[in-house]
Amino acid sequence: MGDISLASTSNHGVQIGVNHGTINTEFHYLPERPETPPQPFASIPFCRDPDFVNREDILDQMDRRYSVPAGRVALVGLGGVGKSQLAIEFAHQIVEVYGNIWIFWIHAGKRARVEEGFRAIADINWLSNERNGRWIMILDSADDYEVFYGASEAGRDRPLAMYLPQSRNGSIIITTRDKDLASRLTGNRENLIEIGPMVQTDALTLLQKKLGLISDVGAVDLVEVLDCVLLAISQAAAYIQARAPRSSVENLMPEGT
């Protein structure tokens, strides 16, 4: 047998002169580097509210449910009671305390927005890989049952609820007005936290944060007229600020109050 030369582009090769027997070759390749998981990122579309009033009992309940592997929790209540504000504050607190965590915020009022949110995550199966780290998905304003359990316009796609990930390294937080939808998405009514109006002391604190020093008597009367609803108090405070000094807590009250 004549000369044989085998070349390679991978920095190795074989060269043989005269050979009359069997040739055995063995190549040892460098092991591939393991893929580096991406750095966690918190996609929270809202800044922290500097006037946020700490409703500690609710945030504590959220933290307990979040801590359960594959946990799901829904904040349920009428519009304006502060469900989204609680979710925003909780998300920021989690990032502040734990740091390395993914947060995905999805506006869940319409099917198209939910689908857009899923596409932004790119690959929903990625969430099931524990190597990618801890994550929270927040479905905000999930008020329409048909968005999650109705058929798509084409009629071919599965209900969106079927695409919600279920993995030990992630949790889902839902804000909604619909208790039945919340129960179905979380799997159990025990995973619901009912959000009502603020207690009077919290309502007064919010009003004072918005307006500064105000008459105690006038403030109490105003928050009672507004049923201690967070959104109503915030809107009233904005109205007073925009028209100050012509407008005040006292002259905003209905006559005879």
TrEMBL record:
Domain of life of the source: Eukaryota
InterPro entries: P-loop_NTPase
Record's protein name: NB-ARC domain-containing protein
Originating species: Cephalotrichum gorgonifer
